[in-house]
Specification:
The chain is an all-alpha fold. The protein is built from one helix and no strands. Helix content is 94%, strand content 0%. The chain is rod-shaped, with a radius of gyration of 45 Å.
């Protein structure tokens, strides 16, 4: 009977050692998974920040593009107005030169 009790205690101690080893392994796995989760969360935050920065830069570039387009349109209008004035001046010069040649204008 004593021997059987000793064998049972031995098995009990062995089972406790095995359970302790399993617990340590599971705890180590839990820590690895926790670290991975933390790294993933940090990566997610970094990517979200990058996305926000990219969107902000994209919006800024869009505003700049729109401003440049307005400037271009204004410059095009100015160019057309100057061309119109040049044509009027050329037309006036031509008619004035013809008028002087025919004697209508005398100074």
């Amino acid at each position: 009977a004593l021997r059987r009790v000793q064998q049972e205690e031995g098995r009990s101690i062995q089972l406790q050692k095995e359970l302790l080893q399993q617990f340590r392994e599971m705890d180590a796995e839990r820590r690895v998974l926790q670290n991975q989760k933390c790294e993933q969360e940090q990566e997610h935050v970094r990517l979200r920040k990058e996305k926000e920065d990219f969107q902000r830069e994209k919006n800024e570039l869009q505003r700049e593009k729109e401003e440049l387009q307005k400037e271009r349109e204004e410059l095009q209008k100015e160019k057309e107005e100057l061309e119109k004035q040049k044509q009027e001046l050329d037309s006036w010069k031509t008619s004035h030169a013809q008028g002087q040649a025919s004697g209508f204008y005398s100074c």
